[in-house]
Design brief:
Elements lengths: L9 H13 L5 E5 L6 H13 L12 H7 L6 E4 L20 H16 L15 H13 L7 E5 L7 H12 L5 E7 L7 H5 L2 E4 L5 H12 L3 H10 L4 H6 L2 H19 L3 H12 L4 H22 L8 H13 L5 H16 L4 H16 L6
Parallel strand pairs: 1-4, 1-5, 2-3, 3-4
Helix pairs in contact: 1-2, 5-6, 8-9, 11-13, 12-16, 13-14, 13-15, 15-16
This protein binds zinc ion.
Length: 375
């Protein structure tokens, strides 16, 4: 892995590189932000760079430290995450030794998956929280390490999964930082951490990804084709993991609504259109409506490309219906139609009454696409 293999997050990468360059490394950092945007990846790369034998702002990727780090076999970097509770586990036990052979195998397999793909969340059966014994292990390990061995770094993934005992134990560690030890916490639920833990960490806020960043990543890392990548990015709400979890089926489901809406707008079944507008307008999920409008917009953009006989990255599943739409409405002013969706999205941001936004949109679309007005 390298900084450049992390999707987006340019601001955060620059900040971390400046921190490394300054040499003033805090003893604890909290990477926070929504799920699936690369917090773990950033923490891992930060840890790796701090331990690279070359000592630059980019991990060299070839020194023995980097190589072992890439498979998480570097002893100076320890991963902490939720584990199952062992049979008869008592305070002070080794958090891994108490597990069954099968559980240990699952843990190792999950770590290897994470090493290959830092966007994968570590998920182990029956692991519902981060155990106090895992946090105690940090203290034990830290106490054993010598400063000349380099920096000992503990990455606590999904730190909000610490139970109360584990949180209190970690708090003590943060209150009395151990020399040469750095803690990196990641979370998508910062509010669920003890405020006293948050206040003792340097905060690293991570950003939502842009559609373009997600689209590029899906094509480069996941081998997605252009049309699927674009649609998935639009539906992912800024999260790369969300985008990867979407199946073509999910995407088609969302688009089907859009196509149905267009059908009703352009057709004669007025009551059905009114029902759909009522249903959409009753939604309290503004983000969902915005996403829906963006899907409608991209559907119209695709149609415009077909109308202009330009290259359009269109899903195989949609090709036929879109081509017949363009054929049936040859005079359609699709640019104006796209602009009317744009206007609806802008009004949504300004908190205009939702029913009014959608009704206006339906009227505008009808006017721009057919000669026959809706009302
Ligand atoms: Zn290196």
């Amino acid at each position: 892995m390298s900084w450049s293999s992390i999707v987006g997050q340019e601001r955060v990468k620059a900040l971390l590189k400046r921190t490394i360059q300054s040499g003033r490394i805090a003893h604890a950092y909290l990477f926070y932000g929504p799920e699936g945007i690369g917090k773990d990846a950033l923490a891992i790369e930060f840890a790796k760079t701090l331990n690279c034998a070359k000592g630059g702002v980019e991990a060299c990727g070839i020194c023995p430290n980097c190589q072992r780090m890439d498979s998480f076999q570097y002893p100076n970097i320890k991963l902490v995450f939720a584990l199952p509770v062992g049979k008869n586990e008592e305070k002070g036990d080794d958090p891994i030794d108490v597990l069954t052979e099968a559980q240990v195998a699952e843990v190792q397999e999950q770590i290897q998956t994470k090493a290959k793909d830092p966007y994968q969340r570590i998920e182990i059966t029956k692991a519902n929280f981060i155990k106090i014994n895992s946090v105690r292990d940090i203290k034990r390990e830290a106490a054993m390490s010598r400063i000349e061995d380099g920096k000992k770094i503990f990455i606590i993934f999904n730190a909000d999964m610490m139970n109360a005992e584990a949180s209190n134990s970690l708090l003590k560690t943060l209150e009395e930082p151990l020399p040469g030890t750095i803690l990196l916490l990641t979370t998508s639920a910062k509010d669920q951490l003890l405020p006293t833990i948050v206040s003792r960490c340097q905060l690293i806020k991570c950003d939502l990804l842009s559609d373009a960043e997600i689209e590029t990543a899906l094509i480069a890392h996941d081998g997605a084709n252009e049309s699927i990548a674009r649609l998935a990015a639009q539906l992912a709400n800024g999260s790369y993991s969300n985008a990867r979890r979407l199946s073509v089926q999910d995407m088609m489901g969302e688009r089907k609504d859009v196509v149905e809406f267009m059908r009703l707008v352009l057709g004669k079944r007025k009551t059905a259109l009114i029902d759909m507008l009522d249903e959409l307008a009753s939604s309290t999920d503004r983000l969902g409506i915005e996403r829906w409008l963006k899907l409608l917009q991209s559907w119209l953009r695709d149609a415009l490309l077909i109308q202009q006989k330009a290259h359009a990255p269109i899903l195989e599943e949609e090709k036929q219906s879109m081509e017949s739409f363009v054929k049936n409405f040859q005079q359609a002013n699709l640019i104006a139609a796209i602009q009317s969706v744009e206007k609806a999205i802008a009004h949504l941001d300004k908190n205009v009454y939702l029913h009014l936004i959608l009704t206006t949109l339906a009227i505008d679309l009808r006017k721009n696409i057919t000669e026959v007005p809706l009302v």
